[in-house]
Amino acid sequence: MPSRADTLLSVVRRMTAERMLLEGASVHAVAQALHLSEQTVRRYRAIVATGGLDTLSKLGVGGRASALDREALEWIATALPSSARLHGFDSDAWTNARLRELIERRYGVRYSRVYVWQIATNLGLGHVLSKSRR
Q1: How much is the pLDDT for 4?
Q2: pLDDT digits (tens, 9 = 90+) for 7-41
Q3: Is 35 within 8 Å of 125 (Cβ atoms)?
Q4: Cβ(35)–Cβ(80) under 8 Å?
Q5: Are residues 93 and 123 in the same domain?
Q6: Taking phi first (over 0 means left), then psi (-120 to 50 degrees means alpha), and beta for anything else, what does residue 83 get?
Q7: For 47-73, how does the pLDDT look when each residue is reduced to its tens digit (9 = 90+)?
Q8: Is 120 helix (H, G, I), strand (E, B) or coil?
Q9: What domain range is 33 assigned to?
Q10: Are 134 and 98 in contact, with CB atoms under 8 Å apart?
């Protein structure tokens, strides 16, 4: 049975990146496909080169466990590609502030803007959040 860390979206995405590299994809292509920075993809490649896939899979995810469970993250992953209007906002665009507000309304937890961005990024949806504050 996989550990909790093995099923985290960030770990799955990390391992997907390395699998793509091993199959011959370029660093740029992997970064684009998985919404990672090229620097991160190169770092993953270097970790595998020196310690193997096992080392990459065991790379820490950091921090304490999120109050959001897998079901909550899946709900967010479904909500972000849709219009923000469907969730009570006055335009279609998603911003960090709107996602923060939605998470607080729905799940009763308040996160920093950095952690909310990390949630969206781990879901492969960081690019959906616009740069505006509201």
Answers
A1: 43
A2: 566 778 888 998 899 899 999 999 999 888 899 89
A3: yes
A4: no
A5: yes
A6: beta
A7: 888 887 777 777 765 556 678 888 999
A8: helix
A9: 4-57
A10: yes
